[in-house]
Design a protein that fits this description.
It comes from Datura stramonium (Jimsonweed). InterPro entries: F-box-like_dom_sf, F-box_dom, PP2-like. This is F-box domain-containing protein. It is built from seven helices and 15 strands. It is an alpha+beta fold. The strands form two sheets. Strands 1, 2, 3, 5, 6, 8, 12, 13 and 15 form a nine-stranded antiparallel sheet that branches. The longest helix is centred in the first third of the chain and has 10 residues.
Length: 261
């Protein structure tokens, strides 16, 4: 007998709201009562970030969704641009935690404003209006920064460089990366513990290599950090190859993504 089906839907919705999106989906299978309650706005309002309305208000994207559940999955599957196109925002489907990508235009890229070294162009696969295209440099150095207060609290984040390699790319075998809290660790100290990554998928000892995403782009893990109460100021991710000063070209950068682990 389905005893849960005998309980008031409001009670079941309240119970589900204290679980997770994944749990709500599983529980909706075992009982008709839970299945009905799992469609409730009460449940999915709790799964959405507490400041989701504020975030959406900073976007020009028109979200026409009839329910909180549909809004949740829309934000999981279709990132929206905020802050004048500087950031993109989405949700992690399993947890509802906040994901942000910092656009290439918002990255601090050495020589990024010099047309001989870097170009800027639209790209049909990019969520942003422009991507950065590496033409030729010997000194590759880029940084992305975000405020911890806008991220989900008590959450471990991983930072990824989101990129593609143009045909005929060169000099992009490996680079060094690190992630640091700007107010808590110096640039020099962070450099000493930097990890080696492989942009061109030629994996070597101790290296992380790039992986293909479902959206067709590549990503490489730059590092991770734990966002506790969102009171640690700015967190910065840096990718650099400034020791072996040979020519590099063919890197197409969409941005840096800060995503829950």
């Amino acid at each position: 007998m389905d005893y849960f089906g005998l309980m008031p839907e409001g009670c079941l919705s309240e119970i589900l709201s204290y679980t997770s999106p994944a749990d709500a989906a599983r529980l909706s299978v075992i009982s008709r009562g839970f299945k009905s309650a799992a469609e409730s706005d009460v449940v999915w309002e709790k799964f959405l970030p507490s400041d989701y309305l504020h975030i959406i208000s900073k976007s020009n994207t028109l979200l026409s969704v009839p329910s909180k559940k549909e809004l949740y999955f829309s934000l999981c599957d279709s990132p929206i641009l905020t802050d004048g196109g500087k950031l993109s925002f989405s949700l992690d489907k399993k947890t509802g935690k906040k994901c942000f990508m910092v656009s290439a235009r918002e990255l601090a890229i050495s020589w990024g404003d010099t047309p001989h070294y870097w170009g800027w162009s639209s790209h049909p696969d990019s969520r942003f209006s422009e991507v950065a295209i590496l033409r030729f440099v010997c000194w590759l150095d880029m940084r992305g920064k975000i405020e911890t207060r806008i991220l989900s609290k008590r959450t471990k984040y991983v930072v990824y460089l989101v990129f593609k390699l143009a045909c005929g790319f060169y000099g992009l075998d490996t680079a060094n990366t690190f992630v640091r809290f700007v107010d808590c660790e110096s640039d020099g100290d962070a450099e000493e513990r930097a990890s080696v990554v492989s942009l061109s998928r030629q994996e070597g000892p101790g290296e992380n290599r790039s992986k293909r995403r479902v959206d067709g782009w590549m990503e490489i893990e730059m590092g991770s950090f734990f966002n506790d109460a969102g009171e640690d100021g700015d967190v910065e991710a840096r990718l650099m190859e400034i020791r072996r000063l040979f020519a590099k070209g063919g890197l197409i950068v969409q941005g840096m993504e800060f995503r829950p682990e």
